[in-house]
Structure prediction request, 565 residues.
Amino acid sequence: MLLKNKDINKVRIEVPAIEGEMGGDDEKYYMFSIEPKTLLKLGFVLHRTRANEAEMPTYQRLLVPSRLQGITKFIDDGGYFPNSVILNFSGENLKKIEFQAHSRKEDTRSRTGVLKIPNAYAIAYIIDGQHRIYGYANSQYKSSDTIPVVAFLGLDSSEQLEMFMDINQNQKAVSPTLRITLEEDLYWNAPRLDSRIKALRSSIISQLGSDQSGPLFGKIALGEDRAELSAKPFADALLRCGLLPEAKGNKFLEEATNSSLYDTTSHDHQDAMEQSRTKTVNFINACYSFADEFLDKDQNTLNTFIVYNRGTYAFISLIGSLNTYLTEEGQVKFSSTTEERFEAIRKYLQALFESLKSIQAEDKERLLGKLGSGAETTWFRMFQDFVSKRFTGYLPADLLDWRERQDTELQDEGRKLAIRIERHLKNVCIANLKALFGDNWDIEIGAIKRECEKRAGEEEEKIYKEGLGRKKIDWTEMLTVPDYKTIIEKYWVKAPDPKPDGFNTFEEHFALDIGHGFNSKSEKSRWLSAFRSYRNTLAHEGTKDKGLNKHEVDLLREIHDQLEI
Prediction:
């Protein structure tokens, strides 16, 4: 922007182009391709910032650095964007843009030619495609790739704003369902293994929903067709449930191949994918058919928990989890037929259905009332829990961990330990600071004090606005674990001179060995980071989906005992 309209050099850029017109006012535009390296100098974005007040109205969102990094990686990994960047040339350089046209053909109003563009900074407003262009800035392909461009001439800012809004409001993004459906065609013969597994997952979902003899026929949304079940929970579950192997690049993740229905030793990718698709579809269909059969006279339970979007992820994930368990127990193996595999899982699914038929009101409310990103996991864990209560041998590690985090007594113990540890941190920190700096101890940690006073003021305001009257809060009540950590590490070995009897430095008091090494200061104080994490988790006491497991409470107890509180 500082160099706007200044020439980079006097030699104009020449590109082959097509001239056309569109819109009610016959807006003229040019289509061409150009290297990102060149466009990065010619183009700029109209952000709504004070720096661009002269260009109002502005419209673009600020560039997102993390998104740019992702786009750069996508490009450097061989990705590309086939859609056009939208530009507008305007300003004092507009009159220097020249189009040398070839003769126009009789059957079209468009014409080809050579577009000559001044080689100057910031002469082209980027209406759409800013992240694509700037994503090339750090890419190895910024000089060798060419990207398609549609360029208008002389649109004013309001027209650009209207076009920006039209693009972002009227162009419908590809829906997640359509994207999942298209993955089969996009990646089935892909050179990368992880892409082929993605295609296999897509193909399985398509067959489940389109098999006229299957229980899910017509019930799964495919492509742009609507149905009662979304494809996404099927896709999410198949990604993690173990029925399909997980892959990264061209390698299988070893732990994910043991119980999958995919022959990971086969070098015939096409055959392996087709066989895996057949085995997986048949197995899942058998499980859903059993649900239909067992719950035939209880359609409410069937449609509330199984053939239901929020139950899909849990049911498919449970099928995968039970298949892994039965494989590890030696009850099924890769070569087992669908009938053998289903017979092995049948009694566990029956336990689930019976539990759902007689579900307690509290559990039902917990499932149906759960919203947000954690809902899928909650449903899955509760499905596992229903089965495990009937068949105690089935107790996956992730279910055990979840149960411990729901244990009220365990959480109460953890909370009591955390409160005592935090109170001890505060007492020792303030006592040591007073011993080191006397009456000036609070000035010594002035930055922390100011933040605490701000928090105290905000808390006083909150209490007052809630109708609880005026309450004075001392700033030391707002000290947090990160504050204690900062103080402890800053004055780690500091002691008064001379050192009085009974005074322990922060190192002497707070250096704890919790199994992560015990050499450097960072290793000796690492427990503070773990404690902070556990303390934050325990603060979510309003929901059963947060909590500590037994190992974490044991670690709190160890910290408590080592501090000799």
The first helix runs from residue 36 to 42. Residues 56-60 have pLDDT under 50 and may be disordered.
